[in-house]
Design brief:
This protein is of the alpha+beta class. 29% of the residues lie in helices and 23% in strands. It is globular and about 85 Å long.
Length: 762
């Protein structure tokens, strides 16, 4: 194994550049003769637009243009389309009202773009936007997920009665009802999966360019090809070759930067009209909080039937999922298929049935956020397991052992959607239990009690389905210096692609990793791509790189054989060198390339099926009974990701996901009031975890059950920390409060909520 081979903890190659301020983010780019855009946003959650008068704004100093819905219509703009629709329970298509770039008759959420002002400077554009006179007629707003489908709730769309986009179902309804009704024990829970604001470090931004023939969009994305295709097919209705989308460094994605947003086509329209570049950069509060698509926001009602030993016999889940005012790119798929497939968790559950009602509200659209449906579903099944343990007086770990799918049951066909190929769920739990010292917990609880604090421990097990999707193509080119360049359509948002992909190629080619570079994020340079999302970058892209490197060696053997005047079968390859077997006649990669001005190979790879990373999280908290303040004092996780390419990168991915899951469990929540105003509209009101809120994490991996659906045994990792952490943290909080008789608190378990629960219990 080489120093930089697969499985080695190679430090991130991109970090020296990024940490010394040499990153290139969209906001860093300033083009010659560049103009600046500013978005006028609706101050109302629901209002009819009577008139828009832009005259004063157009006459303001420095203003170059003002765009409203009339201008986007004149340009022939289409609407933002859902890319993952679902059929309703009765087989009919879902209700999908149009999602315009700019609305002409009504605004449907606070922060919805109403007009776009372009001026010489940002300040001039902002000043002019204040001069636009919009005559609004405010209308009643529906903002509450729980009541949005009530007959008396304000209606958003005539084509969506009771504000329902779809009613979707999966599973065997009759068998599940029979299993629950016939079980010795039953329980029911209502759970809240709180709405979250994503808040990536880098805000959204976009620069539009027009060269007289083609439009170029520079914007941080999780996949420039998807954005290009939507611009071409759905918005401008022009051939794809009329567009170039460029993504440079990206400061965090988490789902936020997969989607198409109105600002992206608007800068292109303005650039084409004005014949000069137009730049727009979001401000955190004025733009990001109110218009970035948000995550989660579900009410989950779950019923389980179980036996005397705590084994689940049947599970029924009824979910109300908030889509916001419009259907974003992938929202239906997230709340339906993604969540439903995860309801089995890591357990033998003979019968499952789920229904999902997706509702419209006067809030910003909701779509995929790290984990994308999986954290919500895992939270449901894990909370049900802990409720069973509490009812029967069984230890949290023991109730899981009794329900785990066993190694000899793989491949395991779940009762709903998925078939797991591999797993060692009990082994992962035992490994985590050792690291977390479960055996010593009661002593730690006693010590905390002596100090006047309530200590609790919580376990959360998870599995996440990683969709293999449409595959990925990797192209490798060798130049005359021996430098190998990878071209691939995955897009790094900070995950370390510039290290992981070269690591795979360097290992295959047996060369130093510094001789491999990665090119992503340009639809002119990379011919195809399906972007980064769903934890599947290495699943398809990494294996495509490995196979392309193998093809490059074979191509190099043919070329070297011609140059050395021998048969290709006589050529051996090692250490970056092609040699005639049994002789000292040899040529390096660069020497072979020099004779043909470089050579290349490519591979398209798509996995045979999904992969199923899984793991066990264990959290410990201490709570101040007087204030409700919660301190997370320990956190342990053991994950099964199959074969690990780079444990250092992987541990960083796990840390980030855990932090986001902890944020959901303890402090984060997007709140709208009854009128539709965003109450948590800045970091003064929306709480996110800081470094001092988190302990040092203990992270380990179980590699005893490699994936069977791809040749490298990779399972995918990027989102899983956010999938497993919420349940573990909430369980720890409830375990700490159990002596007071408190059995339920919804996320986020803020100090105020805990304080109120303690006061009520007393």
């Amino acid at each position: 194994m080489t120093k930089f081979g697969v499985g080695q903890p190679v430090e991130r190659l991109e970090d020296p550049r990024l940490l010394t301020g040499r990153g290139r983010y969209t906001e860093d780019i300033d083009l010659e003769d560049q103009a600046h855009g500013h978005v006028l946003r609706s101050p109302h959650a629901h209002a009819a637009i009577r008139t828009i008068d832009t005259g004063a704004a157009e006459a303001a100093p420095g203003v170059l243009a003002v765009y409203t819905a009339a201008d986007t219509k004149a340009a022939g703009f289409g609407t933002i389309q859902c890319k993952a629709p679902v059929d309703q329970k009765d087989g009919s298509p879902m209700n999908q009202p149009p999602f315009p770039i700019l609305p002409d008759d009504r605004t449907l959420y606070i922060g919805q773009p109403v007009a776009f002002v372009v001026a010489e400077t940002v300040d001039q554009a902002k000043d002019a936007a204040e001069l636009i006179a919009v005559d609004y007629n405010p209308l009643p707003a529906a903002t509450d997920t729980r009541t949005a489908a009530d007959p008396e709730a304000p209606q958003l769309w005539a084509e969506a009665p009771r504000n329902t986009c779809f009613l979707w179902a999966e599973g065997d309804e009759a068998a599940t009802a029979a299993a629950i009704d016939g079980a010795p024990h039953r329980l029911a829970l209502e759970l809240v999966n709180n709405r979250l604001i994503i808040n990536s470090i880098e805000a959204r931004s976009a620069i539009g360019e027009w060269d007289g023939e083609r439009l170029t969009l520079r914007t941080p994305t999780q996949g420039p090809h998807s954005v290009r295709d939507q611009l071409a097919e759905d918005i401008f209705k022009l051939p794809k070759d009329k567009f170039r989308v460029v993504t440079d460094d990206v400061g965090g994605g988490f789902g936020l930067k997969i989607f198409l947003y109105p600002e992206q086509p608007l800068v292109l329209l303005a650039a084409r009209d004005l014949g000069r570049p137009v730049k727009w950069v979001a401000e955190r509060s004025a733009d990001g909080f109110v218009s970035d698509y948000q995550g989660r926001d579900q009410i989950n009602r779950v019923e389980v039937g179980y036996d005397d030993e705590g084994r689940i016999l049947g599970l029924r889940s009824l979910t109300t999922g908030n889509l916001g005012a419009y259907v974003s790119n992938f929202a239906p798929y997230i709340v339906a298929d993604c969540g439903a497939g995860n309801l089995t968790g890591v357990y033998v559950i003979p019968a499952i049935y789920t229904e999902v009602r997706a509702v419209f509200t006067n809030t910003v659209p909701v779509d995929a956020y790290r984990g994308a449906g999986h954290p919500e579903a895992i939270y449901v099944v894990e909370r049900a397991l802990n409720a069973i343990a509490r009812e029967l007086g069984i230890d949290q770990a023991e109730v899981r052992r009794r329900n785990f799918i066993q190694p000899d049951q793989f491949p395991y066909e779940t009762p709903i959607i998925w078939t797991y190929d591999s797993g060692d769920f009990e082994g992962t739990l035992e490994q985590a239990a050792r690291h977390a010292d479960l055996a010593g917990f009661e002593a730690r609880r006693a010590d905390a009690a002596a100090a006047g604090r309530l200590r609790g421990l919580g376990i959360g097990c998870y599995v996440k389905g990683v969709r293999f999707g449409m595959g990925e193509t990797a192209t490798l080119e060798v130049d005359q210096t021996g430098l190998v360049t990878i071209y691939i359509g995955n897009q790094s948002n900070g995950q370390g692609h510039a290290t992981a992909f070269p690591q795979i190629v360097a290992a295959k080619l047996d060369i130093d990793i510094e001789r491999v570079r990665l090119v992503q994020g340009d639809t002119d340079l990379v011919k195809s791509g399906h972007g980064t999302g769903g934890s599947r970058s290495l699943l398809n892209g990494g294996i495509a790189c490995d196979k392309a490197a193998g093809a490059l060696i074979e191509e190099g053997k043919e070329l070297a054989a011609d140059l050395l005047e021998v048969a290709a079968v006589d050529i051996e390859y090692a250490d970056g060198t092609f040699a005639v077997a049994g002789t000292d006649r040899r040529l390096g990669l660069g020497e072979v390339a020099d004779h043909d001005r470089g050579f290349a190979a490519e591979n398209f790879f798509v996995a045979d099926d999904n992969t199923y990373p899984n793991g066990c999280h264990i959290a410990e908290v201490e709570i101040d009974g007087e204030t409700g303040e919660t301190a997370l004092v320990a956190f342990t996780v053991v994950d099964d990701y199959g074969v690990v390419v780079n444990p250092l990168l992987l541990e960083g991915q796990v840390h980030g996901g855990i932090a986001q899951g902890i944020g959901q469990a303890l402090m984060e929540q997007s709140v709208y009031d009854e009128s539709g105003q965003l109450v948590t509209g800045s970091l003064m009101d929306y709480c996110m975890p800081r470094a001092d809120d988190l302990p040092s994490f203990t992270v380990d991996f179980n590699q005893n059950a490699p994936c069977r659906t791809n040749p490298m045994g990779i399972k995918g990792a990027g989102e899983t920390g956010a999938v497993g952490a919420p349940a573990a943290v909430v369980h720890a909080v409830l375990d700490a409060l159990a002596p007071l008789g408190i059995g339920h608190i919804d996320m986020p378990t803020t100090p105020e909520r805990i304080w109120r629960a303690i006061r009520q219990a007393k």
